[in-house]
Amino acid sequence: xxxxxxxxILVNLLTFGLFWxxxxxxKKAVWRIPEKTLMGLCLIGGSIGGLLGMRxxxxxxxxxxxxxxxxxxIALQIGSVLLFYIKGxx
Length: 90
Fold this sequence. Notes:
This protein is 84% helix and 0% strand. The chain has three helices and no strands. It has helices at 2-28, 35-57, 64-89. α1 (2-28) crosses α2 and α2 (35-57) crosses α3 (64-89).
């Protein structure tokens, strides 16, 4: 269980950092981090970091994929955890 928590902390920090980095790069008009990479990190557990990155840096807030996609991913991840937890109790 500790490994899962450490993994989630690291992937969320990485995702948050990449949202920050991509925002900085967008202002400088240099090479950007692909949206697939940002969304992929959200899918593998970095959704909280992605959502915080969107809010803190005001980044990707006009992209429907991110505005709706990240909250949906979070809801699915929470639902999955609850489902496994409830099944584990029975």
